[in-house]
Amino acid sequence: ALVHFDQASRMAPADRRLAGKKASLAAFLDKCREPERCLKVSIDLAPDIPALRFKLARLYEKQGKIEQAMDIYDDILKEIGPSERKLYLW
Fold first, then answer.
1. How far apart are CA 45 and CA 84, in angstroms?
2. In whole angstroms, what is the distance from residue 54 CA to residue 28 CA?
């Protein structure tokens, strides 16, 4: 994405928004050196997106943190309807 911002900046050098968006992305990526931290930052930015929390739960499951994963899964199931649950089957 950073490369695309560079390309866009070369194509539209007068668009100052591109530099700001690139800086925001770079700051976000700097915080996201580890998958768990990255997901937590993403969740903080968009707490209403269950898919992010689901990904965190999957990560915990892979790490053997089953209780933490189950807590997140339970919270998600309380929030989403039956039709949405099909999206989370693996």
1. 22
2. 20
